[in-house]
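Quick question, first post here. What does this chain look like in 3D?
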Amino acid sequence: MSPVFLFFVIFAYFGLLLAVAWWTSRNANNDSFFIGNKSSNWGLVAFGMVGTTLSGATFISVPGAVGRDGFAYMQIVLGYVIGYFAVAYILLPLYYRLKLTSIYHYLDVRLGRRSYQSGAAFFIVSRTLGATARLYLVVNILQATILDSLGIPFWLTNFVILLMILAYTYEGGVKTIVWTDTLQTTGMLVGLVACVGFLLHEMNLGVFESLAQMQASGLAKVFTTDIDSPSYMWKQILAGVFIVLAMTGMDQEMMQKNISVKTLGDSQKNMIALTFILVIVMSMFLFLGGLLYLYAPQAGVTATGDAIFPAVVMGHLPAVMQLIFFIALVSALFPSADGAITALTSSFCIDLLGIQRRQDLSEKQRTRLRHMVHLSFCALFLVLVMVFKWIDEPSMIGVILKLAGYTYGPLLGLFGFGILTQRVVNDRMVPLVVLAAPVLCAILEWKQHLLLGSYQLGLELLVINGLIVMAGLFLISQPASAKPAAAVVS
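> Answer (accepted):
Ran it through. Tokens below.
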């Protein structure tokens, strides 16, 4: 398919997003940007969050990893199910009871202002690194498949895409993101189903026949029973639970959409619906990965990892499938950044700049300040995507989960300590604790061969990080009088 035609597809898709943004951002204000005026439809939020949860990293990296890990990612997905139920019935009631705009305000109420700012700062670092890694993955594929042939440099592709995202998130914020995420999730899932169906047809296989071939080829193995392996079953399931607790339940981007729903009951329905949809979709992505590795030898494709999906589609499938893949890829691209930039702007403005608390600012001044922060995060994304281009890791899903272990661990520890204990911390010491924990984790991972023998650390580093933070907070805390603690956690 002509690269020029695909190039125009991007702009047509962007035009559709702009139309949605114009429609949803009419009469928008700061309340619309931050929490969607508390009027979001729970069904739309649930469906749209599928796209945000999966993003380009899942679309490309999860099928690509099947050649190396089989269906082992399903172990993590099983943990996700437990984690989503915990978010729905432990964290969401807490957030709604306190009527939060930023979920990190809970840390202010429970632990203190430094804890609150520390939590917000770690979210900003976490989401910035994770979102730019996801964005890089998809931008890099767009660059390799069409834009290199048009002589367009990578930095210009990156700049234009971020400019597009800025254009449709600038005013509407969450109110717009709820609708654009729904559109983008639809595009991604249509591409997934179409690719699965076409590959089955092309190889003249049924679902069960293909699964039998995957099993025979070692592609369909789910559970790892070697306790020393980074993919050990119970380690992966436990990691899945805490990944969801940290990266969804304690993440402003994900919770910002949940708390934009009017009632707690509807928000919980959104989370449970998301859980079941996600299990089905993740199973299909793994199945797609198995099909790609069955098809690749027949087509003479030698690519593996993140490169196999685009190599098969763009090199060996007909034009209509290339178009569907490309639309799905673009649909996976935008949720990698639009919701992240919106949530980062919200957190920075509310948690670090305190614009909702400042009585000296008019609504117009708050809006101007929000615009400046929004532009600054877009510029930061531009720089960091270029950094990931320089690093150029072969599998970005591993990089993203590794980053999460270091940056979401302190959030897990802060929220865990606040919810599970009634102790009062020395708030001034909290920043030192949350900074020390990732450093200790880095030393542990570096020297694990000396400290742990043949055991290899994997995703459980997130849990270890959180436990170190909780232990540090315990050391700088003292028993509380019953009344204030009970008021917070009851």
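The first strand starts at residue 424 and ends at 425.
Residues 252 and 295 are 40 Å apart (CA to CA).
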